[in-house]
Amino acid sequence: MADGYVYVLVSANSEYVKIGKTEKHPFLRLKEINLSDNYSDSGPWDVSDSRQVRDCQAVETQLHRRFQDRRVRVDTGADELFAVAPVEARRALDEIDPDMLTKREVVDRLTGDRDFSLYIAKLFAFSGLPAWLNIQGAWTFALYPSTGRGRFFTLNIGTHEVAFSTLAQTDNAHPVHMLVVDRLINDFQQVRQWLEEHGGGMKPAPYASALPRATSLYYACEFAEAEKVLALDGVRRALIAYWTEALIGLRERGSLSLFARFHNYNAVARIIDGIRREERFFSERMASRRQEREAAASLP
Asked: Do 110 and 92 share a structural domain?
């Protein structure tokens, strides 16, 4: 029984999905698949979703059995292709026995703290990270990492942190939060004022590997208050400007982060699932309201 990963791959050049396992990091396995004789002709492939599990062979076998009647074999010898919609394959990953998932206790802690989980979900959605799931491992998310400084989470893009929140150091203290953004944030005085009112400020990011325009924002407050920084004019523009440039560079280089071994795939999956649920809820509510208006307008 080996710890590893199960994954779903998709390609614009294939009507099928690939469901497989690996004991390597999925980011590295994807490179091998895109160069293989069996799968390269229908690639390039991207990771649609993945989970870190205790026994990757057993979980892969369960997934293959689930879709056995839709298994497809092609002339190239590819034997892990399935005529399954990506959303259905992702749903199968959601339904993996929780006892088979690694770091389950840590992930459960995430949803046990509502204000923290809402802050993280808004940060992910706000920054556009759901669009970069295919290069997890180049960017990394560690939940409750084992560091002497004590943190709720650390998010790295490549070799340096771009966001973290520390645990409160005393009973009367607040968590301290940090975001790395583009220095265009200096044009927004309202942001500087908000940071100062919350015991923080902005300064050039202290990381040697950071891009030239990197600026760190610091603020100390509870998570329910911390999320308000994301609504300030200029913050999203500055954050996306820096994070997107850094992510594009990582994708072009195809390099794995030094912190990839700490990346929590299952926590990311839980966060993304929450974002998608909220999006569906608002979409359904808007559709319901539209139907109500149309029905009211049709009355004599």
From this structure: no
Please tell me whether residues 20 and 167 are part of one structural domain. Answer: no
Q: How far apart are CA 257 and CA 140, in angstroms?
A: 7
Both 79 and 147 in one domain: the answer is no
Task: HSE, CB side, 13 Å, CA atoms: give it for residue 116.
Answer: 21
Task: Tell me if 90 is assigned to some domain.
Answer: yes
What is residue 233's three-state secondary structure? Answer: coil
Same domain, 132 and 56: no
Residue with tokens 């006892």: 99
Query: Helices marked H in 198-264 — which ranges?
Result: 223-226, 235-253
Domain tally, the chain: 2
Task: Tell me the longest C-alpha to C-alpha distance in the chain.
Answer: 70
* Final residue before a domain boundary, out of 50, 83, 100: 100
Q: On the CB side of 30, how many CA atoms lie within 13 Å of its CA?
A: 28
Per DSSP bridges, beta strands 176-182 and 160-166 are antiparallel
Token output for 263: 């990346």
Last residue of a domain, one of 65, 100, 135: 100
| 172 and 137 housed in the same domain | yes
- DSSP strands (E only) in 158-263: 160-166, 176-182, 201-204, 214-220
Q: Which residues pair with 9 in a beta bridge?
A: 18, 47
Task: Spell out the per-residue pLDDT of the chain, length 300, in tens.
Answer: 689 999 999 999 999 999 999 998 888 899 899 999 888 888 899 989 999 999 999 999 999 999 999 999 887 778 899 999 999 999 999 999 999 999 888 888 887 889 999 999 999 999 999 999 889 999 999 998 865 458 899 999 988 999 999 987 666 689 999 999 999 999 999 999 999 999 999 999 999 889 999 999 999 999 999 999 999 999 999 999 999 999 999 888 888 888 888 899 999 999 998 888 776 655 566 666 676 666 666 666
pTM exceeds 0.90: no
